[in-house]
């Protein structure tokens, strides 16, 4: 810490209209109040002003709003930073108010954030959602998120959570491992066109890191200091990781894990059936 | 000064007038040579300097601090804003919220509500908001004049203390499972080990009372010692006596059972089981008493979720008195379990404890692991899992008998006359022992946490094997017998084979657990069943090799005494110096047959998906930001870091599931055949289970359930295949997958769109 955060307004965002909904990037303090009002209204857990500012001041380009006729109807709040050996994006809060669900607004908000994260060099993106939140789970599933873990009684209402994780393709192994290179769909609207909008019924996934009792217990997981490093990392175009470094780093005992080599070394004949 | 992050409030900061005043007038005492200076002016200047969105904070101000911050005076966050209710126990008691002399119905309500609180505490809520929301529990000495209430509260406190100690010792819980923190509440009190004496005295006088009622009812002469009736209506006396007695006796039996289960080496198991049976009987009587109690005092407005048998609210409970003890978090009230849920909870707890007590003390490691998996199938709560863990690992020994390393030596000796006792083997087995302990502990945790921790176990186990392989490879090269490993893996090496088999088992358990936790989405089913099939086959390979070694060892012993020439089943041994097994069939144990059933179901499912996809009954959608490759990588990243089962890449998966040369009809047929052979093997498994008399009861019961479930899955999927095939090609049917019949194997549900 110690650096003054440059004014968020520097990243000028011009609203884009689609289906009557205007999408804007976070611009300045004047937008903080409507975002807070929206989230406070829709999510059960109260967040302190510090929580909002933590995310929005440090990653203003990872906060978007959806408005209809001047009213803010949806918002997304995210962050990104170094997590162990990967550069990781994290979706903290996502809200679309009830009358506007099922119109693909949430998908659009998430898609915008994911694009910024991908361009900023994120290897992966994570978030948590209630296991009962079918709408959110379907939305993230359609975008390529995998349910990596289940977290027992994660929320204070006693409901379990899934930790969802999206892995971005790694340029270097996409060509070597893919039998047929898939045509990357770059259309942002593909998901909406495929009709995933029926899934947004209960779309308000709680921000997992902010259930209070939980904060205490997950200290070790999320104690990511607001360090200078964070400030550097959020510069667009920063590429933090190299696949091979990651592999070596993962193994605490200094062994190289080269799965191809292993495959050759241990090619065992296996009995196919019993009889 | 370090402006940086956010600022609470609306951006203007003020130093309170009171602080200014006191700063101006106060004189600071000089202590420890510290010189105090007035910083008010400096602070004021600094505040004026701050703009909107700026905050003064320490270097360690992180997300954690930001999230933990509370906004004072905001009723949504500040628990202190709620000023309703009593502030202290004393205040509550003085106001008459907890009268000592209660009617018998009121005492029963207190007992019931307290029991509900206890169950809620076991389920992970704080002691302060559950058991100690009872004012009588907070001031237990006050209740002495009311012997019945006093005895009940005292044994409740003693039981809670036993439970908490066991949970803390087992150390298999997360903060979400259980709050061990006691908030300084009076949970451990001296003399509570004598709680039974108090209880027995009360029980005895009640029993006498009951006999008196019964005697009076049957017209016999009243006993000479007149006991004061519990209430005024002689008609109801007997029912009230019985209602109270069953509650007391339930508590007593539960307490006894828990105490006996603490005895080392499971020596108390038999006695504990007797008390568990008794407690279950009494619990049934408690349940039955609800009819009488609720009929006596019908509620004006019946509520579904009452915590007492009578349906009436209990006297003497107040959550607000402990408000100050809670963590500085936003105020939150909790829901106490309903009366019915409470009874169900204790019933399951007792049944689970009973299953733990039935565990035989001479179980082999392999069966022991299977036992834990099967035990977990009924989703036991933490209290039972903690007791299981304490029984399995006592003083670092398996079931308190021998160290895991010794047990491994013994297991290996069964297959080989001369287990190597060299340093290398010893070190390896010691490491294996350590990891096995870790595995057992992990398997007693809640399934969600368990799967995460299993990931770590798998990684460590993989590393251990890799290191061992490396050192062995070197020694093999020296002695010129290299090349062995390439063909057969470690099947000819007793020690390595054992470790590899265990690792494969953990991997299959890890993958299967993912289904139970609903971690996989339909577009991953194919890859998961494919990888699972691979792991199961590798496991089978090692299991059969072990069986063969066992037979060989037996043969060496009997030395050509059995001249049968039946054809050997299983895999032929390649090379080696011991005479190959040819004249005896490899025995198919239930565990081997279960594997075979799983393998058939996996293969059936993989081919079924291939057929349905080729027939355009299911459509796979592409995702925008990544492809199946990334999802495969993510899903099996962990398994790519270990040596067995041999890591499989995405390319392997694509190649294996492409089925370029088969027609749709052939694909349907192959899938159908796999489900057919699954059914055959399920039959064989069923027979094998009934022919194995010495099977652990928990394992046997679970196999019976498994068999029924798998039969249904195989049958239903065969029917679905037939329907889909008959419908002809194209998107004329909607196929979805459900886990309604088996937690890990899906059934295809075919519907017209």
UniProtKB/TrEMBL annotation, chain A:
<comment type="similarity">
    <text>Belongs to the acetyltransferase family. MAK3 subfamily.</text>
</comment>
<dbReference type="GO" id="GO:0004596">
    <property type="term" value="F:protein-N-terminal amino-acid acetyltransferase activity"/>
</dbReference>
<feature type="domain" description="N-acetyltransferase">
    <location>
        <begin position="21"/>
        <end position="169"/>
    </location>
</feature>
<protein>
    <recommendedName>
        <fullName>N-acetyltransferase domain-containing protein</fullName>
    </recommendedName>
</protein>
<dbReference type="Pfam" id="PF00583">
    <property type="entry name" value="Acetyltransf_1"/>
</dbReference>
<dbReference type="GO" id="GO:0031417">
    <property type="term" value="C:NatC complex"/>
</dbReference>
<dbReference type="InterPro" id="IPR044542">
    <property type="entry name" value="NAA30-like"/>
</dbReference>
<feature type="compositionally biased region" description="Basic and acidic residues">
    <location>
        <begin position="194"/>
        <end position="209"/>
    </location>
</feature>
<feature type="region of interest" description="Disordered">
    <location>
        <begin position="174"/>
        <end position="211"/>
    </location>
</feature>
<dbReference type="InterPro" id="IPR000182">
    <property type="entry name" value="GNAT_dom"/>
</dbReference>
<keyword id="KW-0012">Acyltransferase</keyword>
<keyword id="KW-0808">Transferase</keyword>
<dbReference type="InterPro" id="IPR016181">
    <property type="entry name" value="Acyl_CoA_acyltransferase"/>
</dbReference>
Automatic annotation (TrEMBL), chain B:
<dbReference type="GO" id="GO:0031417">
    <property type="term" value="C:NatC complex"/>
</dbReference>
<comment type="similarity">
    <text>Belongs to the MAK10 family.</text>
</comment>
<feature type="region of interest" description="Disordered">
    <location>
        <begin position="556"/>
        <end position="576"/>
    </location>
</feature>
<dbReference type="InterPro" id="IPR057983">
    <property type="entry name" value="NAA35-like_N"/>
</dbReference>
<feature type="domain" description="NAA35-like TPR repeats">
    <location>
        <begin position="356"/>
        <end position="748"/>
    </location>
</feature>
<protein>
    <recommendedName>
        <fullName>N-alpha-acetyltransferase 35, NatC auxiliary subunit</fullName>
    </recommendedName>
</protein>
<feature type="domain" description="NAA35-like N-terminal">
    <location>
        <begin position="53"/>
        <end position="146"/>
    </location>
</feature>
<dbReference type="InterPro" id="IPR007244">
    <property type="entry name" value="Naa35_N"/>
</dbReference>
<keyword id="KW-0963">Cytoplasm</keyword>
<dbReference type="Pfam" id="PF04112">
    <property type="entry name" value="Mak10"/>
</dbReference>
<dbReference type="InterPro" id="IPR057982">
    <property type="entry name" value="TPR_NAA35"/>
</dbReference>
<dbReference type="Pfam" id="PF25789">
    <property type="entry name" value="TPR_NAA35"/>
</dbReference>
């Amino acid at each position: 810490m110690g650096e003054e955060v440059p004014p968020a307004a520097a990243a000028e965002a011009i609203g884009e209209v689609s289906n009557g909904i205007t999408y804007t990037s976070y611009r300045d303090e004047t937008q903080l109040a409507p975002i807070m009002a929206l989230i406070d209204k829709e999510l059960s857990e109260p967040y302190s002003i510090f929580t909002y500012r933590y995310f929005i001041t440090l990653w203003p380009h990872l906060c978007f709003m959806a408005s209809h006729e001047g009213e803010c109807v949806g918002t997304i709040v995210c962050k990104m930073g170094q997590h162990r050996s990967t550069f990781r994006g994290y979706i903290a809060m996502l809200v679309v108010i009830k009358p506007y669900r099922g119109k693909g607004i949430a998908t659009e908000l998430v898609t915008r954030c994911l694009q910024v994260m991908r361009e900023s060099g994120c290897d992966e993106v994570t978030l948590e959602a209630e296991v009962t939140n079918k709408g959110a789970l379907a939305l993230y599933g359609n975008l390529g998120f995998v349910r990596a873990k289940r977290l027992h009684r994660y929320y204070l209402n006693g409901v379990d959570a899934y930790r969802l994780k999206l892995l971005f393709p790694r340029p270097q192994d996409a060509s070597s491992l893919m039998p047929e290179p898939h045509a990357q769909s770059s259309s942002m609207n593909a998901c909406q066109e495929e009709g995933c909008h029926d899934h947004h019924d209960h779309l308000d996934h709680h921000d997992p890191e902010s259930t209070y009792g939980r904060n205490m217990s997950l200290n070790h997981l999320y104690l990511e200091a607001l360090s200078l490093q964070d400030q550097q990392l959020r510069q667009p175009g920063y590429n933090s990781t190299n696949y091979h470094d990651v592999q070596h780093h993962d193994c605490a005992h200094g062994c190289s894990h080269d799965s191809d080599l292993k495959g050759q070394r241990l090619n065992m004949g296996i009995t196919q059936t019993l009889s | 000064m370090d402006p940086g992050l956010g600022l609470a409030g609306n951006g203007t900061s003020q130093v309170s007038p009171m602080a200014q005043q006191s700063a101006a007038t106060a004189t600071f005492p000089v202590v420890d040579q510290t010189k105090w200076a007035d910083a008010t002016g400096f602070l004021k200047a600094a505040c004026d300097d701050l703009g909107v969105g700026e905050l003064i904070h320490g270097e360690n101000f992180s997300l954690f601090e930001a999230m933990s911050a509370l906004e004072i005076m905001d009723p949504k966050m500040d628990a202190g804003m709620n000023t309703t209710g009593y502030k202290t126990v004393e205040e509550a008691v003085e106001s008459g919220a907890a009268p000592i002399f209660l009617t018998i119905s009121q005492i029963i309500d207190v007992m019931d509500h307290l029991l509900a609180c206890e169950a809620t505490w076991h389920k992970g809520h704080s002691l302060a908001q559950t058991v100690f929301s009872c004012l009588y529990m907070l001031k237990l000495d006050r209740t002495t004049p009311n012997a019945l209430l006093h005895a009940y509260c005292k044994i409740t406190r003693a039981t809670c203390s036993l439970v908490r100690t066991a949970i803390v010792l087992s150390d298999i819980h997360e903060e979400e499972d259980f709050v061990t923190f006691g908030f300084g509440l009076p949970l451990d009190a001296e003399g509570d080990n004598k709680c039974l004496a108090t209880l027995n005295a009360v029980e005895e006088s009640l029993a006498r009372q009951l006999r008196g009622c019964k005697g009076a009812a049957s017209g016999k002469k009243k006993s000479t010692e007149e006991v004061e009736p519990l209430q005024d209506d002689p008609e109801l006396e007997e029912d009230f006596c019985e209602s109270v007695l069953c509650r007391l006796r339930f508590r007593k039996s539960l307490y006894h059972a828990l105490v006996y289960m603490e005895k080392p080496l499971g020596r108390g198991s038999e006695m504990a089981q007797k008390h568990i049976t008794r407690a279950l009987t009494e619990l049934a009587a408690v349940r039955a008493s609800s009819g009488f109690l609720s009929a006596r005092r019908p509620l004006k407005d019946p509520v579904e979720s009452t915590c007492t048998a009578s349906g009436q609210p209990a006297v003497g409970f107040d959550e607000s008195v402990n408000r100050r003890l809670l963590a500085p978090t936003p105020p939150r009230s909790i829901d106490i379990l309903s009366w019915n849920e409470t009874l169900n909870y204790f019933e399951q707890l007792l049944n689970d404890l009973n299953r733990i007590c039935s565990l035989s003390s001479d179980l082999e490691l392999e069966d022991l692991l299977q036992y834990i998996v099967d035990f977990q199938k009924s989703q036991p709560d933490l209290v039972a899992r903690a007791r299981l863990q304490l029984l399995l690992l006592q003083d670092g020994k398996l079931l308190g008998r021998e160290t895991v390393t010794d047990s491994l030596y013994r297991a290996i000796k069964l297959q080989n006359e001369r287990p190597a006792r060299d340093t290398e083997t010893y070190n390896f087995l010691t490491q294996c022992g350590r990891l096995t302990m870790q595995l057992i502990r992990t398997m007693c945790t809640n399934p969600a946490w368990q799967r995460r921790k299993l990931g770590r176990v798998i990684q460590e186990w993989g590393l251990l094997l890799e290191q061992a392989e490396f050192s062995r490879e070197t020694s093999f090269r020296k002695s010129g017998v290299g090349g062995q490993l390439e063909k057969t893996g470690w099947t000819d090496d007793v020690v390595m084979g054992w470790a590899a088999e265990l690792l494969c088992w953990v991997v299959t358990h890890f993958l299967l657990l993912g289904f139970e936790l609903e971690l996989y989405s339909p577009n991953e089913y194919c890859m998961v069943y494919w990888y699972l099939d691979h792991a199961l086959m590798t496991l089978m390979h090692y299991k059969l090799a072990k069986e063969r070694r066992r037979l060989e060892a037996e043969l060496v012993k009997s030395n050509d005494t059995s001249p049968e020439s039946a054809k050997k089943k299983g895999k032929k041994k390649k090379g080696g110096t011991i005479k190959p097994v040819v004249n005896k069939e490899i025995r198919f144990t239930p565990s081997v047959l279960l594997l075979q059933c799983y393998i058939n179901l996996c293969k059936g499912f993989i081919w079924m998906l291939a057929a349905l996809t080729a027939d355009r009954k299911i459509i796979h959608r592409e995702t925008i930001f990544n492809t199946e490759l990334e999802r495969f990588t993510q899903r099996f990243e962990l398994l790519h870091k270990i040596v067995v089962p041999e890591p499989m890449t995405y390319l392997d998966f694509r190649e294996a599931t492409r089925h370029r040369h088969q027609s749709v009809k052939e694909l349907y047929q192959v899938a159908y055949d796999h489900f057919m052979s699954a059914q055959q093997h399920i039959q064989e498994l069923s027979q094998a289970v009934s022919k194995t008399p010495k099977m652990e009861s928990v394992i046997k019961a679970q196999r019976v359930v498994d068999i029924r479930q798998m039969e249904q899955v195989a049958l239903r999927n065969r029917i679905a295949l037939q329907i889909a095939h008959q419908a002809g090609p194209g998107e004329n049917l909607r196929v979805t997958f459900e886990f309604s019949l088996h937690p890990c194997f899906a059934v295809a549900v075919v519907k017209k769109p």
